[in-house]
Predict the 3D structure of the following.
Amino acid sequence: MQNMHNFMPHQKQTSKTSPGLRRRHGLGLLALGLVVRPSWAKPPVLRVAAASDLKFVLAQLLETFQKETGLKVEASYGSSGNFARQIRQGLPVHLFMSADESWVLQLAEAGLTRRLPDGMADRGVVYGLGRIALIVPAASTLQLDSELKGLQAEWSRVGKFAIANPEHAPYGRAAQQALEKLGLWNLAKTRLVLGENIAQATQFVTTGAAQAGITAQALALAPEVARQIRHILLPESLHQPMRQRMVLLKDAPPGAQRLYAYLQTPAAQAVFRRYGFAV
Amino acid sequence: MGRLQVQLQNQAPMPLAAEFECAAGELIALVGPSGSGKTSLLRAVAGLLRVPQLQGTVQVGDQPWFDSARGICLTPQQRRVGLVFQHYALFPHLTALENVAVACPSSLDIRQDASLRALFERLGLAGLEQRRPAQLSGGQQQRVALARALRRILRPQDGRVEPGGVLLLDEPFSAVDAPTRQTLYRELAALRQQVSTPMVLVTHDLSEARRLADRVVIVDAGATLQSGPPERVFSSPRNARVADLVGIQNHFRGRFRRLPDDRGVLRWEGQDGAGLDLQVIDKHRLDDGVAVTWVLAGEHVDVLLPAAAAPADDTQNRLLCTLVEVLALGETSLCTLVPEGLASEKLTLNLSTAQLRRLGSDVGGKLLVQIPRQGIHIMPQRTGG
Amino acid sequence: MDYQAARVSLLLAAATALLLLPPGLWLARWLALSAWRGKPLVEALLMLPLLLPPTVIGFYLLLAFGQGSALGAWLASALNLRLVFSFEGLLLASLLVNLPFMVQPIQRSFAALPHSLREAAWVSGLSVWQTFWRIELPLAWPGLLAGVALTVAHTLGEFGVVLMVGGSIPGETRTLSVAIYDRVQAFDLGGAHGMALALVVFSLLALALVFAADRRQAAARTLQER
């Protein structure tokens, strides 16, 4: 092997640039460095967009997954409809877990989900069934029952009733369906406060801003929430089934597929069940 | 050395119709009320007036600074003009020395430069070089502003004037208190001995103009109405407007009639139709029987006690007047006298308080006002002059 | 405390301020000195981001640069540049929204400089550029400082646009303000408190700096009026 030494005599370099100019160059490089994407040095990360009701169960599942596989996963939570819209506009996520299958199916139709070997767009898989619960703040003395009769009796005490926004949050839509089925929609309409997503709607009740509300059973069971409220599970018959579907999006990396598979294993399903998802 | 020649015209909204000159070593005062355009004229000479439709020329020596016909308009930087602003316009973040040396090349070590030191000494600012403007008195700030202006027009080597320079002063003493003002007047007079460049002073203060200027130029609504030595302009205004502007109070209406031997009669007409005849000189500039306005030059007027007066001759006009008001102003008293036979008119005379005391006259008493023929200055009634 | 989010926020604020300073300075000085008849229109356009809801701005940015638009698709394919759901997109939105915060204080400080100072410099022989550099800038710098401080503080607090255009991607578009929102949604109020407090303290410091600078400016001004 040849020694490729470059014998450069050590010359004293006379600075041709004035101090002011050098300072300006340095500043420019700094600015450039700031502008360049801050994520340029990070290892590839898996991104999941998940419905808000999955907040606690997914945190648990991801912890296990990351420990077992060593892959890094970042999850964002929000309303399913909102995520679907953002995905249309180019949101760079790999796995979409919706609280309602219609959003997933729409994305598949739009060709935004991953392509299956047979050339079809992946329509994902149902990972659970969403259930709704009626909640009141822990200190409230309102009576809870599955037909909201207790609430109706003391309706004057219910200043605000919180649900998620039915337009883009599946749990909100289910809440509206339930209220309509019970003939309470017109009554409740005047006192509704809408949450951006089911987590925000739940917030309204936990903080006492709303005196009652309908939320996801999964959230009502989560320890952080449960200690601030009282709840009762509402019958499935009150609303159209919320088939919760998840799907891999186009160009999802192999790691995302592993996550997708993991979430369908019996072990994962047990966790789902524990958190109140009917699987 | 260059003579400054200015001739400028402009339309509304800032009308100008000005023409004046200033020789090297001469100090002229542009005098006029607020809003008369005198500052605009000064700024036009300095190159600070940004009016695209400006017509005319500004020439210093044989160098044109502005010539609308030839499309020449030098920038302020290109004109060798030293301008002292009304509120000094000193740079608050620089020391006095840095203010004066602001346009010196950066290679110059201003603290060591002998010419700058000499300039500071010459203006009585020695020792104040490192002070910021906020740490200087009003008079000192004014002198620093003057030093900065002088730096522009003097040759650094020997402190003599660079050819082609002009010194402009925009109401430089209006923001200064009275005692300081007197000091600065004296200093300016002393400076004039050493610096022979055209100097143009803008002021609304007539007494200041009279004190400092070789010639005054009366400016009103952008037009130069009259120019000449102060005594002549103030005693012989060209027309009624100039008379008003220079503050002449004895300003009346009349009718002129010609007499033989270069003599004339001025009928002083009052509001109520009454009149008095006065002997005047016929300068052959007016037609017989024409309506005129006229002013009285106060320095020609004498005031006597009626009883003590010697007999008159026909070169003197004598008016018996009643003293109706005396306003004591220290050394002088402003006296208002009403002539007999012309109750609607008033003469305003500045008499020394000593003289008034000698006359022993009081309000209501009678005095004889003696006006020589040459003390009456007649102007045609057309305001065009 | 979400340090990653804090880093994104600080990076966004610093980049916005640095990139806005030169054009902001140029525009502010022009506005301060110009007598052009069309100036009120420019000033109104400049103020627009202050009046429009951030969601509106975010919405139009999504329409213009999102995957669905021709421009967005072209940028992605030709320049590999994504302007939604990316830090660059946030930066672009931030630049648009913060322009008035940078320009206004600078404009005020230049307008407050007595014009006679400039004229004195010109008749003393300084060129327009020299006058700007040696006379105007040393006297107007408090305005620049205020502009930078306000821009930084405002960017740190920016929420609506970030939410619309950012997508809350950790390490890239999840800023501190969005992280606080996320903490609250996750029923972790303690975490939210900490970050909110940090934001408040930082913003207070920035504003204190602005007001202190303003006082210096006022002192320099009154000297001139004496």
